[in-house]
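Request: When convenient, would you put together a sequence paired with its structure tokens?
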Amino acid sequence: MRFLSGASQVFLAIYLPVWVDAYAPRHKKTRWMTYNIMAAPLGLLVGYALTAVMVSMGMDWKWAFLRNAFIIVPVSLLYIFVKPQYLNIGKRLEK
């Protein structure tokens, strides 16, 4: 599970900074990149905290994995609805 989690996140770790550079308004690039960089540690913090709360309530720690699956799958499916012009950065950078 750890490998699958890392393998699925590596694409975003590489792609998001390039996307921010290509699409963020010039005066907001720093703010967008800050949000991008802060997302991973804050996600870990919130995930560990939620798991601790779930375990303290008597739930099995395995429910934390199921919770992640229920969150990650719908969010991943949202990429289907992203306009192709926002995903194809090659054309954007040529202009």
Summary: The chain has four helices and no strands. The mean pLDDT is 81. The chain has one domain: 2-94. Residues 29-56 form the longest helix (28 residues).
